[in-house]
Design a protein that fits this description.
alpha/beta, DegT/StrS_aminotransferase, seven-stranded mixed β-sheet, 13 helices, 383 residues, two-stranded antiparallel ribbon, Aspartate Aminotransferase, domain 2, 2 domains
Length: 383
């Protein structure tokens, strides 16, 4: 349901997803069960890891990562302000303090390892690397930094499922990786997420915390295991549903084809937008084969009125978006942590000028051409 001819995102669901959901409903088992386990196995195989833990959302994945690492009051976590607010919220909700770092620049919207290093104190316990738009942060530098200071490295892979990079498979380089399967993500389940961890003990802690820290799961009891159980930690209900995981399995199978189509669209965008004066396309210096291309981000020239620009696209029935307002300038974070403008100059500059254009597997060449045409008409380079 959209008022746009070309929306920012269009879901790609078909008969296979419908049949997968129908099979779950026929089975009578709706909460995390055999379909969830199978989805976990397939996702782990795609990443090349031993196992992973499916959860109810990307936010749940991040929250469980923070809980499993034991972060709490008195601890600090360095993370980019340029991200969806959930990353910082999960840190704050555990009583730890989010310490925001700048991004590298308009050409690279991931956390700047040098600025992250400047934010480390004796209270720092972890660094969060968010792979913006599905493009790898500098994990080599960040892992080196984390190791030098004895910190955990959390990878926020909400935009980057099953994405290889020069640093390795995203989500498997750091101590713990968190994925999102929200309705607009490359693997879309409506809601859902996944957690991977290199340390088996850490991974098992995540698995138990997602289900109230019960010592015996419902699956084990159903299979004839002990009927009683203990609770030896404070856990949550972050289990996914079988319905969501059934959709996730189908989406995962379709991911290689979907990613190829995204790359085709990005290639066309890069070629056709290259002549616009003052435009910066983040990550355009990287080969199009790299990255998950979850977002098609652009940074407008200084002095451009972004709202006017978006209004012109809206009038042409082309949707655009902003990803994201900087977290450190939200009211809750300004009031709670004494933050404000001027503390992250690079982030504040690029977030004031960032714009996202439509990008999804079904976006064809003709639609890209129309979007580029409307962008060119709306263009207002600085005088």
């Amino acid at each position: 349901m959209t008022a746009f001819d070309i929306p920012l995102y269009r879901p790609a669901f078909g008969p296979a997803e419908i049949e997968a959901v129908t099979e779950v409903l026929r089975s009578g088992w709706l909460s995390a069960g055999p379909v969830t386990e199978d989805f976990e196995g397939k996702f782990a195989a795609a990443l090349g890891v031993e196992s992973c833990v499916a959860v109810s959302s990307g936010t749940a994945a991040l929250h469980l990562a923070v809980l499993a690492l034991g972060l709490g009051p008195g601890d600090e976590v360095v993370l980019p302000s340029l991200n969806f607010v959930s990353a910082a919220a999960t840190v704050a909700l555990c009583g730890a303090t989010p310490v925001f770092a700048d991004v590298t620049g308009a050409h690279d919207l991931c956390i700047d390892p040098q600025d992250a290093a400047r934010r480390i104190t004796s209270r720092t316990r972890a660094i969060v690397a968010m792979h913006y738009g599905g493009h790898a942060a500098d994990l080599t530098a960040l892992a080196r930094l984390a190791h030098a200071h004895g910190l955990a490295l959390i990878e926020d892979c909400a935009h980057a499922p099953v994405t290889d990079s020069a640093h390795g498979m995203l989500g498997t380089v750091g101590d713990i990786g968190c994925y999102s399967f929200f309705a607009t993500k490359n693997v879309a389940m409506g809601e859902g997420g996944m957690v991977v961890a290199r340390d088996p003990a850490l991974r098992e802690r995540v698995r138990r915390l997602r289900s109230h820290a019960l010592t015996v799961s419902a699956q084990q009891r159903h299979r004839g295991g002990p009927s009683g159980y203990d609770v030896d930690a404070l856990g949550l209900n972050y289990r996914p549903t079988e319905i969501a995981c059934a959709v996730g399995r189908v989406q995962l199978d379709a991911l290689p084809t979907a990613q190829a189509r995204r790359r085709d669209a990005v290639r066309a965008y890069r070629e056709q937008l290259a002549g616009l004066p003052g435009l910066t396309m983040p990550f355009a210096d990287r080969p199009v084969q790299e990255g998950a291309h979850h977002l098609l981000a652009m940074v407008l020239p200084p002095g451009t009125d972004r709202e006017v620009f978006q209004d012109r696209l809206r009038a042409a029935r082309v949707q655009s978006g902003v990803h994201y307002p900087p977290t450190h300038l939200f009211t809750a974070y300004r009031e709670r942590y004494g933050l404000g403008p001027g503390q992250l100059p690079v982030t504040e500059d690029v977030t004031a000028r960032q714009l996202s254009l439509p990008l999804y597997p079904g976006l064809g060449a003709a639609e890209v051409g129309r979007i580029v045409e409307e962008v060119s008409r709306a263009w207002q380079p600085a005088p």
